[in-house]
Amino acid sequence: MTAGGSRQIELGAAVSYVAILFNVLAGFLYTPWMIHRIGQADYGLYTLTTSVMAYFLIDFGLENAVVKFLSRYRATGDAKGMARFLGLVQKMYLLLDAGILVGLAVAYLFLDRIYVQLSPAEMVKFRTLFVIAGLTILLSFPFTPLKGIMGAHEKFFAHKMLNLLQKAATIVLTMTLLLLGADLYALVIVQLIVGVAFVVLRGIYVNRTIHPLLDWRFFEGALLRSILSFTVWVALILVSQQVIVNLAPTLLGILAPGAALEISVFSIGMIFYGYLLNFSGALNGLFVPRVTQMVHEKATMGDLSRLMIRVGRAQTYVVGFIYMAFAVFGREFLHWWVGAGFEGSYEVGLILMSPCLVVFTQEIAGTFLIVVDEVKYRAILYIGSAALSVGLSILLVPSGGATGAAAAIA
Q: Do residues 287 and 311 lie in contact, with contact meaning Cβ atoms separated by under 8 Å?
């Protein structure tokens, strides 16, 4: 790891924590204000749209593959291999984008048959949100490799800074439109505009600083098989993660009486789970190039273990502090923050956060498994967890609502 790479990790980590603090403060101030402006039921519909779109954003592990393979090519100085790899991956992304278009079209036709607990008026709104959010995905998804290119070249500061600016721009523009009298649809329209704008900015930065080359004519079955042998397991992990957490609003929309309100209660509890995830995971993505370099240089398991322990110890302090603070003050804070109607969000948040004391403190080991192509063990565990979560949700959601969904996930 070069001095410049270490400096980029430090800057990237600093910006990551600034971004997390911004998200926390913005969430505490912006979320209740936004719910007040659009209403609790509409907020539930917005959350449902976000959770559904998460399934179409799964790139089947290709972004992880970009970081992993490009880091390996950089470690060996193989510029030609990088160009060939990027050309092949870009074609795979375009093919996936076409598949997403088909999937969105089919899903749109069956929305009213899937979300039977939504009223006719709520279904009209949900269909409109679905179309706008789907367009955002179709326009931005093919450019996902830009993030992997920046990560592999250790441009962590710029990568994290662009993410922070994108979130800030989204919140500022949304608040402006809502103050001017806009309604629920402003939330997804702003995401469309800002998302496309930052795709352009990210592309300009990558072309000016990294100058990546793409060999569009190259195709090699051996390289494709190598990519797929890695991504198939990562894809199973990503799909399982989506099923475990993001399927909950869908199951509430199908099975829970008063679905829109239950989804809103669940989503507020999920916010605190998300904060915990962001704080504990701020460092994880920064270490793929470092671990790749250590493996390439045949570092000992002792060296790798010391890195995992050092990062894991810091994550334990962060996760433990946030969990205890929410357990002690969360109920009173939620009453002050979002008011009546969200009492169940405390139980949802506390239940979801409990397993994180173990899981989130070991993520650096997951990075190592990615680098050494041993992610299948993790994938098998996630598949089992997803199946158990769905089965329990079907049993608990009809009577337990949002709390039942959280219990099944935990």
A: yes
